[in-house]
Design goal:
With 334 residues, the chain is of the alpha/beta class. 35% of the residues lie in helices and 13% in strands. The protein has a 7-stranded mixed β-sheet with strand order 1-3-2-4-5-6-7, sandwiched between helices. Helix 8 links the parallel strand 6 and strand 7.
Length: 334
């Protein structure tokens, strides 16, 4: 039994090492929508960011073959969007770039997209991908200011551990992947505390001082998974052999404007089975309403952006809130 566990770990390490050696760039961006012969084909763009150990396969349902990004690109409801995926190195056991390293490579790709003249660029992040999106948003504000944030109106997170995951405590013992440490629970994770505080301060000031809104919509899982088989050795802990939520609701929804549950586990919350999936339809609707300037999703910006990010007088008190709206449907009805 133990020999099989050791052999599995060795083979996984060798495989991930080979992946690392073959990688040419730590971060790549792929266009998922049809090429029209120009850099910008549509008025808006949406970028998908996978999570820990993920890839483009993060968005593909293995049973149906449904590939989420290309389906968004081909849907009449979201035909105003160019669709992209950003893929970064993240291996289960082997060393991988930190979130800060990933962000340093994501920023040039996003700046290139911004230079194409899109009216808005939405972000969709699964798990760690949501934290990558949050770090990017904070960086844009710190480096380029509130005016640069005006291009980003909508961030959709799918099972993102904003307050960490208790599974990360175990994961950090078996991996050299640097990102594992920032996924640890909130109480022992100052990085996540500062990241979330920065996002709340940025988005609240952004709106309070006369900028277009920037809102986070959070989806959270309701189905647990079993991390370790029942025959796993005692040192792995009995709770790992019992069904657990990888990311609990309180963590997935922390700081979000609107929250929505979906009947998926952590892995499948990024893999809708088809166009009739409630998850696919809800995200599609968010993108559509944002492009249209729907008041409950991406409200029309102020008539003048002259004072965007500059006015300190009249700013509201810091509001460490979670789930202003308990469902995405509530935003649609506003």
């Amino acid at each position: 039994m133990y020999r099989s566990l050791i052999l599995t770990a060795i083979l996984t390490s060798v495989w991930t090492y080979a992946q690392t050696a073959e990688a040419e760039e730590p971060v790549l961006i792929n266009r998922e929508s049809p090429d029209c012969g120009t850099e910008r084909c549509k008025d808006h763009a949406v970028v998908f960011l996978h999570g820990l150990t993920g890839s483009r396969e993060t968005w593909k349902n293995a049973e149906t073959g449904f590939y989420w990004p290309s389906e968004i690109a081909s849907s009449s409801e979201t035909d105003m969007y160019d669709v992209y995926t950003i893929n970064y190195e993240s291996y289960f056991l082997n060393d991988s770039p930190s979130v800060l390293d990933v962000n340093n490579h994501v920023v040039p790709h996003m700046r290139k997209l911004a230079s194409r003249g899109y009216k808005s660029i939405a972000l969709i992040g699964h798990s760690l991908g949501g934290l990558v999106a949050a770090r990017y948003i904070n960086f844009v504000k710190q480096r380029f200011g509130h005016e640069a944030l005006n291009m980003h109106r909508l961030v959709i997170t799918l099972g993102t551990p904003n307050k960490g995951s208790r599974l990360a405590d175990f994961y950090t013992y078996i991996t050299r992947n640097q990102t594992g440490r920032i996924l640890r629970p909130y109480k022992t994770n100052d990085y996540l505390g500062l990241l979330n505080e920065g996002i709340l301060a940025t988005t609240q000031k952004h709106e309070d001082s006369g900028c277009p809104s920037l809102r986070f919509f959070a989806a959270y899982e309701t189905k647990p998974i079993t991390v370790a088989p029942s025959w796993a050795p005692d040192f792995m802990g009995s709770w790992l052999s019992s069904p657990v939520l990888v990311v609990e609701k309180a963590s997935a929804t922390n700081g979000a404007y609107a929250c929505q549950s979906f009947q998926f586990d952590h892995n499948l919350i990024s893999k809708p089975a088809g166009k009739d999936s409630p998850l696919f339809k809800s995200v599609q609707k968010l993108l559509n309403r944002c492009a249209q300037g729907h008041r409950g999703v991406c409200p029309p910006p102020p008539a003048s952006l002259e004072n965007c990010g500059r006015a300190w007088e009249g700013l509201g008190e810091f509001r460490p809130t979670t789930c202003n709206l308990e469902s995405w449907d509530a935003a649609f009805s506003n």
